[in-house]
Design brief:
The chain is an alpha/beta fold and about 300 residues long. The N terminus is likely disordered. It is about 45% helix and about 20% strand. The chain is globular and about 70 Å long.
C-alpha cells in the first residue's frame, strides 16, 4: 500500500481512527501474530484482518511486514506504535483520575524514582505531600531510569525522578535537580576496605554486582572498564535492587556500585565501606520527568513543586 497523495488534517485522522484499532495494533506488537491479537480482543481472525486493513488505509501507510507466520513492524509501524502507547498511557491516567473522583476525590499519586533521590528530596517531598493531602494514596516505585520511563509511557506512573539519558523514545519534559555521584562499595572486612587509595586494577581481582544492562549506571560502569581497556568480569550478579547490592557486598568479597548519597548513610552506620576510588566519568544529573502528551493531576503538580524546592 502506497502513501496517500496528500497529508490528512488531524481532525480527519481522528474521525477515521477507532480505539479498537489502537488496541489491536498494540496487541499485535506485544504478541507478534494477528491471530493471537484477535484472540485477546475477542475477534475472529477475518475481523481482525479487516480492522488492520482499515487502520492502514486510514493512516495511508502499511504498518507491518509478514515474517513467517508473524508480523514485524516496519518504520511507519514503529512510529505509530510509539504514539499508540502514549494514547494508552493517557487513557490509563484518565481512568485513574475518574476512579479517584468516583471515590470522593482523595485520589492516588504514582511516582517512580531512582534510588539516589530517595534519602533526601524524595523523602521530604513525600512527607510534605502526606501533611497537605492526608487522604491521598501514594505509590512509590524504585527502579532504574529506563524501566521507570517505560512505566511512565504506559500511564502506570505520573511522575518519574530519573535521568534524562533514559528519555529516548519517550515524549517527556525534564527538569534537572542535581548531579549524582557513584561509589564502589565493599563489606567492612573486605581486603580493599583498609586501603587509603584504590586503583582500578586492584578492583579487577574481585567479583562484581552490577545494575542490569541498559541502565544509565551500568552504561557508566561499562565506560569505566573501556577507559581502562578492561573487559567486564565474568560471573556477574546483575540486579536493579540497591538493597540486594548492599547485602551481597556486605556478606562477601564482591564489589558493588551505588549512589554516594545512599552509601554515605550506610557507611556512617558501619554497615559498609565506600572505597576511595573515583570514576573517570560522571552520570548525567537526575531530575523530574513528566509526559508531554497528557495533563498532570493537581497532586502531581504539587509534588513537583515540593520536589524542586530547595531544602530549608
Amino acid at each position: 500500500m502506497g502513501s496517500v497523495d496528500r497529508q490528512q488534517s488531524t481532525p480527519q485522522l481522528m474521525n477515521r481512527l477507532r480505539m479498537r484499532q489502537v488496541a489491536l495494533l498494540l496487541a499485535i506488537d506485544e504478541l507478534g501474530t494477528l491471530s493471537s491479537a484477535a484472540n485477546r480482543l475477542g475477534l475472529t481472525q477475518p475481523a481482525a484482518t479487516k480492522m488492520l486493513n482499515e487502520l492502514e488505509t486510514a493512516l495511508g501507510q502499511r504498518l507491518f511486514e509478514r515474517v513467517g507466520r508473524g508480523l514485524q513492524r516496519n518504520a511507519a509501524g514503529e512510529r505509530v506504535t510509539g504514539y499508540f502507547r502514549s494514547i494508552r498511557g493517557s487513557m490509563e491516567a484518565l481512568n485513574q483520575e475518574l476512579e479517584a473522583l468516583r471515590l470522593g476525590g482523595a485520589g492516588k499519586l504514582a511516582v517512580g524514582s531512582i534510588m539516589a533521590a530517595s534519602p533526601g528530596r524524595l523523602t521530604r517531598a513525600l512527607l510534605q505531600m502526606k501533611a497537605e493531602f492526608p487522604m491521598l494514596a501514594m505509590e512509590v516505585a524504585v527502579d532504574t531510569s529506563d524501566r521507570l520511563l517505560a512505566q511512565l509511557r504506559e500511564g502506570v506512573l505520573e511522575v518519574v525522578v530519573g535521568r534524562k539519558a533514559a528519555v529516548a523514545g519517550v515524549p517527556c519534559r525534564f527538569k534537572a535537580i542535581e548531579d549524582e555521584a557513584l561509589v564502589v562499595i565493599a563489606g567492612t572486612s573486605h581486603p580493599l576496605a583498609r586501603r587509603r587509595t584504590v586503583d582500578f586494577r586492584s578492583l579487577l581481582a574481585y567479583p562484581w554486582i552490577l545494575q542490569p544492562q541498559g541502565s544509565p549506571m551500568r552504561d557508566l560502569i561499562e565506560r569505566e572498564f573501556r577507559h581502562h581497556d578492561a573487559e567486564l568480569p565474568r560471573g556477574l550478579i546483575e540486579t536493579g535492587s540497591i538493597l540486594t547490592t548492599i547485602n551481597l557486598a556486605c556478606s562477601s568479597e564482591m564489589l558493588g556500585v551505588i549512589p554516594q548519597a545512599v552509601a554515605q548513610s550506610h557507611a556512617q552506620a558501619g554497615m559498609l565501606c565506600a572505597l576511595p576510588y573515583r570514576f573517570s566519568h560522571a552520570l548525567d544529573a537526575y531530575g523530574s520527568l513528566v509526559p508531554r502528551d497528557r495533563p498532570l493531576s493537581a497532586p502531581a503538580q504539587r509534588f513537583l513543586e515540593l520536589l524542586h524546592a530547595k531544602p530549608a
